[in-house]
TrEMBL record, chains A, B:
This is Transcriptional activatory protein BadR. SMART domains: HTH_MARR (SM00347). Residues 18-152 form the HTH marR-type domain. It holds the Pfam family MarR_2. InterPro entries: HTH_MarR-typ (IPR000835), WH-like_DNA-bd_sf (IPR036388), WH_DNA-bd_sf (IPR036390). The keyword Transmembrane does not apply. The keyword DNA-binding applies. Keywords: DNA-binding, Transcription, Transcription regulation. GO terms for molecular function: DNA binding; DNA-binding transcription factor activity.
DNA sequence: TTAAATTATTTCAAACATAAAATATCTAAG
DNA sequence: CTTAGATATTTTATGTTTGAAATAATTTAA
């Protein structure tokens, strides 16, 4: 027994299994993400980041601040600026200045953006269902509950 | 009961739970990935993609082909080219032409690259352990087994 | 009130990433 | 042997992403 081991909690001594779990988690999400990216591109000619932004905005009909989008999507502020710029150019999203705070701009989907997203969302939902078909509804619920801890651990923090 | 539902297997009818699972999976891996990215940057001044490449090469002392790296990391060929270019410039990686096939180049870590990686890997392992500390060793093993299906579903396919 | 600190967003440079096209090499059919 | 097709990699154009710095507006405190 090494000097390291005696200092460790037996439950946390063997860190190999957690590293393996992390690698599996990462590979699973990359595989699914890659497949969804590919299907969104070939079917709707849309990139995954753009779809993600539209999905976030669709859930909030009153719009979101740039900083809320950044936090929700877990990407940097500058990234959101560029994405919204391009989506605005394409008429899918608009910035409005209805606040008393002139630093902020409320971003929301245009009517074209909503229609566009609804069509894509139906396919997206079906694809996710297909790609996760290894899991029954019950298993999905259990697993989702297991993973709940993470989002909440960091969510709310700026990055 | 709608016309849709009668056509579906009862086990797969309710797709909401799978979509929720996907979103949780994605948020969990993004949160962990973001935290690791930040720590690698501030502690070792290295980017996550560079760490990932070095980790892949460390496992293969005899080196890997560009296409193997691309497949293993699930990123495009062009992306690997750029990463290896930059790592080569910094003396952490080298291309060798020891094959009878002049199209291919075998990439491997330099001695400096191996030393550099070993130092980072120790911290990385500890960080993963910390970030996944919600899971006991047993839970990690069970969960990793559950996620095993995915990687193998797509792995081996070119992207 | 005014200056300092804070907050929200954008800009910038560099790196990362994709997909398609180009290049170079190898393999195999004839 | 020649060449058509396949394979491995790089190049190119475009888009995504980060982190730091700059800008602009608001809030706080002296």
């Amino acid at each position: 027994m090494t000097s390291q081991e005696v200092l460790m909690d037996p439950e946390t001594t063997d860190d190999k299994s957690r590293v393996r779990l992390w690698l599996r988690l990462l590979r699973a999400s990359r595989a699914i993400e890659g497949e969804l990216r590919e299907r969104l591109r070939t079917t709707f000619n849309v990139t995954l980041p753009r779809f993600d932004v539209m999905a976030a905005l669709y859930r909030e009909p009153d719009g979101m601040l740039m900083s809320q989008l950044s936090k929700y999507l877990m990407v940097s502020n500058g990234n959101v600026t560029g994405l919204i710029d391009r989506l605005t150019t394409d008429g899918l999203v608009q910035r409005t200045l209805r606040d008393g705070d002139r630093r902020t701009s409320v971003v929301l989907l245009t009517e074209a953006g909503r229609e566009n997203f609804e069509i894509m969302a139906a396919s997206h939902r079906a694809w996710v269902n297909e790609l996760l078909s290894h899991f029954t509804t019950k298993e999905s619920e259990v697993l989702a509950e297991t993973l709940k801890v993470f989002a909440s651990d960091w969510e709310g923090e700026a990055r």
